[in-house]
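Record filed below.
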Amino acid sequence: MKHDEGVNTVTIPDPRHHVHKLPTGHPAAAPRERGFLVGVELKRFRPSAPAQDGGMPRFAIEDSLEELAALARTAGIEVVGGTYQRLERINPATYIGKGKLEELQSFRDELAVDLFIFDDELSPAQMRELERALERKVIDRTALILDVFAQHAHTREGQLQVELAQYEYRLPRLTRLWTHLARQAGGRAGGATGGVGLRGPGETQLESDRRLIRRHIARLKAELELVREHRARYRRKRRRAAIPTVAIVGYTNAGKSTLLNALSQADVLVADMLFATLDPTTRRVKLPGGREVLFTDTVGFIQKLPTTLVAAFRATLEEISEADLILHVIDITHRNAMQQAATVATVLEEIGATHAPLISALNKIDRLADPSLLNTLLAEFPNSIPISAATGQGLDLLLARIEEVLNADLVPLRVRLPYQQGQLLALLHAHGHIRREEYGPQGTTVEGFIPAHLSAQFRPFAV
């Protein structure tokens, strides 16, 4: 995106180069809505201003709008332009200033705009006033992200989580949909014996819809609680089997799914688009020393991630907070790599996933314009490994580092296992690290390491 200093407009690259191709006959292949992007940058939060929010780096408004454009294209919207405004404070009525609102009206007619997309979450009142002034549909970043998630949630669990987030987002905005407040026949203002002319106005359509949505929300939360309990039982089963888990996290489109495919020969969808994959995928991977590990590819993060989504995806995000190790994939070629990494770190803190050790995988090094910058980048990210998930470069070093970190919980052992104790030998191979293995007349002598909580089973055979 290019910034025109005169009018604070944003030039959107030709959307034909960014549209995800869909099979003929797909519903999204129909004529697309023409969207226009609108952003606001508060002067106290400009990247050049003193650090805010605990020193977390902030996206420049141009970069934030470019990301919004990518989200819009992923949702099937044709982006025809964008603009932004720098303000001291948000206008509580219309979010933007009066002059910018008039400018949007001219863009509406000049570019045949179908909808305006705002880069921040709007209040119900702001959305109502904007639609009244612009005479077009208005959505915000949260609604757009929810729409993208709805398109890409294919499992029952993912669909439940997205549906819950959508209902919780829409509930306070029903007044925009039911401004007429059509009333149903209802109660009696004059009591049970009141006659004609004394009946009360009854229940409004708005109140009826709110009650209906609250029922849906309660039902979805109950279903998701069952999902959460199922995931918790599955995690307990994994812990009993001593299979460590690695949660792959990262900013959307950083290459998480590509990495999981490369490590496990999985067939997870890979596409150059935001939130191409949404449903979590778990695959078994064997480390260089033979120890088996479960890698879970989780939902990608993004700046200004809606709080309704974070809450709705509680069951999925618990896979991260319960992991033995977190693998943070960073697109090192992105100009906002530092800000993206900071966004991921903030979300991890919000969901309480800060206890496990973390390794950063600096992905896409094969696409670095200047490879000599790699040493500088490694210094920026502690405990990091440079890789290319697409070419396989550095994956052996990454697995070795993962094994080193996971093996820190192992204790040494030297045992002689009778041949009838084959299940213990299999346990060692699956969850331990074997240095030496010898077969003798009395059994198999093994030297190596085993997770501390499994060591008690081997004590009777210590030598």
